Amino acid sequence: MKTAADLTTTTRWQQPGDGHTRHVPDLPVISGAPPPGTPMRAERGRPLIIRVGKHLRGFFDQLIASSSLVSNDPVLDMRDFAWTQGLRAHWQAIRDEALAVALRGDASPSLATISPDHRSIAEVDKWRSFFLWGYGFRIDDNADRCPTTATLVEQVPGLNSAFFSILAPGTHIPVHRGVTKGLITCHLGLIVPRDGDVRMRVADRVVRWAEGETLVFDDTYDHEVWNDTAGTRVVLLVQFERPLRNPGKWLAGKLLAVVRRSAFVQEARDNISQWNRAAKQREV
C-alpha cells in the first residue's frame, strides 16, 4: 500500500513508489481535449444556455440567498452539517482508497481534459479529479472501487458531486466561482504537504487544510487556490444542496435540473466514461 509520505515526496503527481518520478505513458485520450502545456483559456463556442446562465446567476443567487436556512458567509460552520462528522471519523479509510485507486496517472484525468468549462482555470496535468458522483449522477466504475467513500458520501443530504481533487506541486488555480448559490462545498483533507504553504482564499478569508478535518464554504464567492509545496495535495470534495426554504428551494431545484441536462454536465459525463473505457482497455 502506498503511503501519504510516498506521495508527498514525489515532485510530480505520477504514481510514486520508490521516490523516483516516472512519466505515465500512453494515457487515455479524450477527443478534443487540450494536450499538456496548452495555455489555459475558456472553450470557445459553448452552448447558449451556458453563456447566458453565467450572466444571470448573480440575480438567481440573490434570490436563493434570501431563502437560505444556513449562513451565507464565505466560510460556514461545519457544526451546521452534522454529517461531516462521518467523513472526519473515517478519513483514514477514505485516504487509503484514494491512494489505492485515484492516484494513478491513468485513473484520474485532468479536469481540463474532461470539462471544457474548466479549461480557463485548470492547467492540464495540474488539477486532476477522480469522480464518484457528478451533478447527481453516480460514476459506477469509480464508486464501486471506493466502497467506503461511496457509502459515506451517499449519506450526505442533497448530494450533488463527490470526487478526489488532486493538486500537483506548484499549482495555482486562479480566481473563479461556482455555478449556483444552491450548492455548498465541503473539503475533507486527505493529504496536505507540510514543506510549504497550501491555502485557499475565499472572498476575504484565507483558509488552510488539515488532514482529517473538514472545511465547508460557499464557492459562489471568488476563490483561488495555491499549492506552494513540492508535494501533492489531495482532498475529498463533496458538493451538496444548500438547505433552503421556498421560494429559493423551488428555484434552486429548477436551476439544478437545467444544469444537470446541460452540456456543462453531459459532456463531462461522456468524457469520464470515455476515459474509463480507455483505461480498462490498457489493463487488458
Strand order of the largest sheet: 1-9-6-11-4-2-3
Low-pLDDT residue spans: 1-33, 46-52
The total of helices stands at 9
Evaluate the radius of gyration: 18 Å
Please estimate the helix content: 25-40%
Structural class label = alpha+beta
The dominant shape is globular
Can you give the mean pLDDT?
82
End-to-end C-alpha gap: 22 Å
- The succession of helices and strands, N to C, reads HHEHHHEEHHEEEEEEEEHH
Explain this structure.
- 32% of the residues lie in helices and 22% in strands.
- The protein is of the alpha+beta class.
- The strands form 2 sheets. A 7-stranded antiparallel β-sheet has the order 1-9-6-11-4-2-3. The protein has a 4-stranded antiparallel β-sheet with strand order 5-10-7-8, with no helix packed on it.
- Strand 7 and strand 8 form a beta hairpin.
- 40% of the residues are buried.
- The model is unreliable at 1-33 and 46-52 (pLDDT under 50).
Overview features:
284 residues, alpha+beta, four-stranded antiparallel sheet, 11 strands
Secondary structure blueprint with pairings:
Elements: H1 4-8, H2 48-65, E1 75-76, H3 84-89, H4 91-102, H5 111-114, E2 127-134, E3 137-138, H6 140-143, H7 147-153, E4 159-167, E5 172-176, E6 183-191, E7 197-202, E8 205-207, E9 214-217, E10 223-228, E11 233-241, H8 248-261, H9 263-283
Helix pairs in contact: 2-8
